[in-house]
Amino acid sequence: MERKNSVCLLIAICCFSNLALGSQDLEGKWKLLKRSIGVSAMHMALLPNDRIIAFDRSHFGPSNITLPQGKCIKGVELETSDCYAHAVEFDPITRKVRPLTIQTDTWCSSGALLANGVLVQTGGYRLGERVVRYLKPCSDCDWEEDHQNGLISPRWYASNQILPNGKIIVVGGRFQFTYEFIPRTSDSDRKILYQLPFLKETMHSPKIPNNLYPFLHLSTDGNLFIFANDRAILLDYVNNRVMKNYPVMPGGISRNYPSTGSSVLLPVNLSSINVHINNNNKPVVHSQVLICGGTLPDSNENAAEAQIFLPAAKSCGRLTITAQNPKWEMEEMPLNRVMGDMILLPTGDVLIINGAAKGTAGWGAAREPVLNPVIYCPKINRFRILSPSLIPRLYHSTAHLLSDGRVLVGGSNPNVNYNFSALFPTELSLQAFYPPYFNLMSNRSRPSISTVKPGAFLKLKYTENFSLGFKLRSGDLGEIFVTMVAPSFTTHSFAMNQRLLVLELHGAVQKSNTAGDYIVQCSAPPTAALAPPGYCQLFLVNDGVPSKAVWVQIK
Ligand SMILES: *[C@@H]1O[C@H](CO)[C@@H](O)[C@H](O)[C@H]1NC(C)=O
Ligand SMILES: *[C@@H]1O[C@H](CO)[C@@H](O)[C@H](O)[C@H]1NC(C)=O
Ligand SMILES: *[C@@H]1O[C@H](CO)[C@@H](O)[C@H](O)[C@H]1NC(C)=O
Ligand SMILES: *[C@@H]1O[C@H](CO)[C@@H](O)[C@H](O)[C@H]1NC(C)=O
Ligand SMILES: *[C@@H]1O[C@H](CO)[C@@H](O)[C@H](O)[C@H]1NC(C)=O
């Protein structure tokens, strides 16, 4: 008895101090959802019908899933026919997979959801490098490819961000020191390429640019924050003017491809206390960016040329991008990590998942998979190690938040083709990670949203007040807040367009006449600079435990 007690005590202390790495008692849980979806999930997006779209590149021949009904397409880049699908739709609830048809190569491309919920994907490799592809959220829709009105410049390793006017800005790409806007739907949409010398200035060397897939975040003042390598600017993209040059992030670590760290805009809290009216009579609120992991600038050269796998960085930088005199605050993760994905959880915490402790992005260029995710709490600046996965997720792996609060994890293919006998085999599987708010204790406090009013067809207008009805399973009413999460397009460890707002609440939570039901009054975000138009997941959080999301469309 005595012995048992002391073991329990030891575990409790270890959990708290995170010394028990690999222990069964760490928080969080993994589940294999599908051994194979037929493709390796290099790119991943969530549509408003709760289907995941996952796709790979398409110029390497057979995947592990064929096109439907014996269909074949002209092989991309090959003078052959290709009867394999390189994109799929996945339903995280039924676990059904539906093959989709890509005609041109989507390798290392980018994307975003349009305001109407259509997934737009841009660029890729060779014949695909200027193509813009559209996928509507419906149960039998397939890709439509636009070759005529595609990108002005070829874009491979570019990044996208949806803007307050509903257009998407596409920034950079290999040797592309420019940006442009899509979709160009009418003649009045001018076909203009804007120069961005910052992308040339931040290259480490012409051979290893180290600033690809730049991190883009729409600042709460409407300008675009762009981070590349170890530097950042604030861009007025309308007038093509650099508004601010931020200080260099200290530490000499490169953060962008192939030194691949990751980046998030931390939760934007719209509580009226935080919102200020600026000189132009616009409501503004401060916003912060957190960038974690990456590695030394020459790590890729070391791996590729000498098989030397340098350690990944432990450091993160946190910056208030709207401050008068912004300064990087450096923090340490408990684990070194390159190619980690940073995912905003409905609670406002940041999950850092996937990646390796040594090497970089690139074919066979990483070692020592980091199997433990960590969770970062922005409020108290603390990291915690969570329980490990059994599946390494290295180069070309992805993660995405699902509407039920789980995080879907897939991909990993550091091999030239699909190779199931390599040191790190091509991964076709999908797993779900259950963050700590899925534990038994938390289940008692789990709320569920029952009504959104008026929210006709769950459409919200800017500044509009609405009421949110919710039920509690059995636990007590605790601290309540409401978050709105914009879904992302995730690839190469960067979740483009990911954004989490904490909504303004009015008055106290009211008990409604129905037993177990409560009502809380909220305000929709005030401006499109704070919430670009489109579909978002609305979560209600009770004492740190999120409900399932309902989708709302903000206009
Ligand atoms: C993919 O297909 C190949 C060839 O048919 C097979 O050997 C392999 O086991 C499959 N892999 C998975 C993960 O399904
Ligand atoms: C939002 O900000 C308000 C005011 O500072 C604070 O009281 C509240 O706890 C914050 N909410 C969250 C979820 O961080
Ligand atoms: C798979 O990887 C192994 C180890 O790198 C290599 O020897 C083999 O040729 C590869 N197979 C294919 C089909 O590319
Ligand atoms: C908590 O609830 C979720 C969803 O309702 C369920 O999948 C999970 O198994 C529950 N966890 C425990 C530990 O009971
Ligand atoms: C929303 O409700 C609050 C509190 O009742 C009120 O002060 C505010 O004016 C309302 N806003 C709108 C746009 O109706």
List keywords for this structure.
mainly beta, 6% helix, single chain, 555 residues, disordered N terminus, Methylamine Dehydrogenase, Chain H, Immunoglobulin-like, 4 helices, binds 2-acetamido-2-deoxy-beta-D-glucopyranose, 47 strands, globular, GO-like_E_set, six-stranded antiparallel β-sheet
List the helices and strands and how they pair.
Elements: H1 2-17, E1 29-34, E2 43-46, E3 52-55, E4 73-74, E5 81-82, E6 87-90, E7 97-100, E8 110-113, E9 119-122, E10 132-135, E11 144-146, E12 159-162, E13 168-171, E14 178-182, E15 194-195, H2 198-201, E16 215-218, E17 224-228, E18 231-236, E19 241-245, E20 262-265, E21 268-269, E22 276-277, E23 283-284, E24 288-292, H3 299-306, E25 315-320, E26 329-332, E27 341-344, E28 350-353, E29 356-359, E30 366-369, E31 374-377, E32 382-385, E33 397-401, E34 407-411, E35 430-434, H4 440-445, E36 447-453, E37 459-460, E38 465-472, E39 480-486, E40 489-491, E41 494-496, E42 499-502, E43 504-511, E44 517-523, E45 534-542, E46 545-546, E47 550-554
Parallel strand pairs: 21-42, 37-47
Antiparallel strand pairs: 1-35, 2-3, 2-40, 3-6, 4-5, 6-7, 8-9, 9-10, 10-11, 12-13, 13-14, 14-15, 16-17, 17-18, 18-19, 20-24, 22-23, 24-25, 25-26, 27-28, 28-31, 29-30, 31-32, 33-34, 34-35, 36-38, 38-44, 39-42, 39-45, 40-41, 43-44, 45-46, 45-47
The structure holds 2-acetamido-2-deoxy-beta-D-glucopyranose (NAG) (5 copies).
The site of one 2-acetamido-2-deoxy-beta-D-glucopyranose (NAG) has 4 residues, from loops.
Domain Glyoxal oxidase N-terminal: 42-437
Keywords: Signal
InterPro entries: Gal_Oxase/kelch_b-propeller, Gal_Oxidase_central_sf, Glyoxal_oxidase_N, GO-like_E_set, Ig-like_fold, Ig_E-set
